[in-house]
Amino acid sequence: MIANLSGEVRNRLLSALSPRAQILLAPDLEFLALAAGYVLYEPTEAIDFVYFPETAVASMVRRMADGSGVEVGTIGREGVVGGSVALGAVTTPTLCVIQVAGSVQRISTAALRAAVALPRDDDDNGNPSLNALMLLYAQALFEQCAQTAACNRLHALEHRCARWILMIHDRVDGDELLLTQEFLSYMLGVRRAGVTEACGTLMRAGLIRYRHGRITVTDRGGLEAASCECFQVAVDAYDELFGTSLVGSV
User: How far is CA 143 from CA 10, 45, 52, 66, in A?
Assistant: First the structure.
């Protein structure tokens, strides 16, 4: 079975595979602990490895010519980073970086493609094949990116901030999120003063505590109420595609 050093299968896609598929993949997976800021891919560089986050959270950041950037996708234990190689991609136009430090399972692109090309590995218990899961997740990630684009254009900064904090909260253990102002500015697509303003609004409402790169969620229900519709839309998209929630606690 696919397990990390503690013996757990923490990534939702990997845990959804049939036992046979997990056994086939296990020899090619490598457990890693990655620090915040670790770059998985630079834009246009070859994708040599694919990452299945466990406790780590990765960001897809789109950079502009003037050096500014904004997050266009968030990937945690519900998904896979670099999974587009299974569909034939060789590079990615986005910067992919670890946003929240933690563990991942890594597999080479060659090994993943070989596994996807194998005959069907689903089983009589309804466990989907690796190929089916990769295709479903590609659609789920597209839905998230599309909703993020609409949200960034149409919704107020404090609502977007609440949505983004909820997304990270769903992908980590506990209520404390270790995040720098630089990352927060990427996530929200604003300057640091905007980050301070948005977090200050949520803090004054008693929904979070924010100090020195640490956000602590103190009122999850209130944060959901303060968020725009986009958070729940993204969650519902995952649930509908996979038939179960992939973003809650493991």
Answer: 23, 25, 19, 28
Q: Are residues 20 and 75 in the same domain?
A: yes
Find the domain containing 156 and state its range: 149-236
Q: Is 201 inside a domain boundary? A: yes
Rounded CA separation 129/17 (Å): 6
Q: What is the pTM of this model?
A: 0.89
What pLDDT is recorded for position 192? Answer: 81
Quote the CA–CA distance of 116 and 99 in Å, as a whole number: 28
Contacts of 177 (CB under 8 A, 6+ apart): 100, 165, 168, 169, 214, 215, 216, 217
Per-residue pLDDT tens for 85-141? 988 999 999 999 999 999 999 999 999 999 988 766 555 566 778 888 899 999 999
Is residue 243 assigned to a domain?
no
